[in-house]
Design goal:
CATH superfamily: NAD(P)-binding Rossmann-like Domain
EC number: 1.1.1.127
Bound molecules: NADPH dihydro-nicotinamide-adenine-dinucleotide phosphate
Strand order of the largest sheet: 3-2-1-4-5-6-7
Largest sheet: 7 strands, parallel
Structural class: alpha/beta
Family: Belongs to the short-chain dehydrogenases/reductases (SDR) family.
Helix content: 40-55%
Number of helices: 8
Number of domains: 1
Shape: globular
Organism: Novosphingobium piscinae
Order of helices and strands: EHEHEHEHEHEHHHE
Distance between the termini: 37 Å
Number of strands: 7
CATH architecture: 3-Layer(aba) Sandwich
Pfam families: adh_short_C2
Strand content: 15-25%
Keywords: Oxidoreductase
CATH class: Alpha Beta
Length: 251
């Protein structure tokens, strides 16, 4: 048996692909041979330029994934362009920070909807084709807060714990259909999402001191693991929440 990390001939759909971790994952999947559909709200010029260098086919889909409304149309557009979806990366996510006693219902709903509800129903829509073909990979982006409570981020901790739970639930039901579902739990990665933490000198130093690897993560640190989980080499890996965190959880 040959061990393969090759994604040639595969089609990937990556949400939140125009910035940070999602962009790094989209580029890495294309470098591994996949054609890539990008779903996000922001201008994708930088992502498209990086993807062009890989020579793979790309599809730019501007879509607001704060509700389930656009899911059906999104999947139809990818199928119309590429005919199939072999790899789904559920990366789109938001965070809202506020003291627990002041935390609003709006911030609860927004985070749960984008980070968890849309993740599940997009996976469901894409999994129908995967199950019909008897193969597919779903990679969810979880968080250290899938395991820990955090401070001032209760809806994010709830949503990301939910991502871990739904990853196992989907993996369990889809394993016999040839579909693997896993999650990556990034540690502290330098992106827009963590810009406020990075610019807070005290907090940033405290975080750095607690990371055994002695540095913040880079989006590419997550992308390598995503390629592995999307590849045939991971055909027997399912239902895992894999921390990629410079050793944070080992401490
Ligand atoms: P970014 O803020 O750069 O990325 C978040 C992405 O989510 C953006 O590309 C954004 O797309 C997309 N997104 C958010 N809301 C919507 C929406 N309504 N519709 C469509 N797309 C949306 O930060 P990161 O790269 O860090 O975050 C990526 C993922 O990694 C998130 O799920 C985050 O929770 C997770 N994560 C990050 C960690 C870190 O330390 N950075 C740690 C643990 C987890 P657009 O701008 O186009 O709307």
């Amino acid at each position: 048996m040959t061990i393969s990390f090759d994604l040639a001939g595969k089609v990937a759909l990556v949400t939140g692909a125009n910035t940070g971790i999602g962009q790094a994952i989209a580029v890495a999947l294309a470098e591994a041979g996949a054609d890539v559909a990008l779903a996000g709200r922001s201008e994708p010029a930088e992502t498209l330029a990086r993807l062009a260098a890989t020579g793979r086919r790309t599809l730019d889909l501007r879509v607001d994934l704060s509700s389930t409304a656009p899911i059906e149309g999104l999947v139809e557009q990818v199928l119309a362009a590429f005919g199939r979806i072999d790899v789904l990366v559920n990366n789109a996510g938001i965070i809202r920070r506020a003291d627990l006693l002041d935390f609003s219902e709006a911030d609860w709903d927004a985070v749960l909807d984008t980070n968890l509800k849309v993740l599940f129903f997009l996976s469901q829509a894409v999994a129908r084709g995967m199950v019909a073909r008897g193969s597919g990979k779903i990679v969810n982006i979880a968080s250290l807060l899938s395991f820990q409570g955090g401070i001032r981020v209760p809806s994010y901790a709830a949503a990301k714990s939910g991502v871990a739970g739904v990853t196992r639930a989907m993996a369990n039901e889809l394993a016999a259909k040839g579909v693997q579902v896993n999650a990556i739990a990034p540690g502290y990665i330098a992106t827009n999402n963590t810009a406020a933490l990075q610019s807070d000198e005290t907090r940033s130093r405290q975080i750095l001191e607690r990371i055994p690897a002695g540095r913040w993560g880079r989006p590419e640190d997550i992308a390598g693991t995503a390629v592995f989980l999307a590849s045939p080499a991971a055909d027997y890996v399912t239902g895992q929440i894999l921390a990629v965190d410079g050793g944070w959880m080992a401490r």
